[in-house]
Design brief:
By secondary structure, this protein is of the alpha/beta class. 41% of the residues lie in helices and 14% in strands. The chain contains five helices and four strands, in the order E-E-H-E-H-H-H-E-H. It has a four-stranded parallel β-sheet. Helix 1 links the parallel strand 2 and strand 3.
Amino acid sequence: MGIQLKRAYDPPADDDGFRVLVDRVWPRGVRKETLKLDQWLREISPSTALRKWFGHDPDKWEEFKKRYSRELDGRPQEVAVLLDRMREGPLTIVFASKEQRFNNAVALKEYLERHRGR
């Protein structure tokens, strides 16, 4: 099944499937009821040090993905939750960042797609 990405500020849709927030911090100004999450998986987000180092700088994107992948390799239980959900149906990764191309949700999606068969 597929993975889609959605900002926390975009309305949920019927075809979202399992909705999981992957940010360490709750999105500003969004009510819990509005987000309609199935799970908030804080532990899957990048470490604070990595997030601050990266700062959504496109020049650091490739290195960020490598470092974040190493962090994800060290979180097999959290990764397994998402891989299992992918097998069951649609998965929507919810994130708050205004930056839609260079963020942890995009990197996480790529990681999950690479590890789909495990």
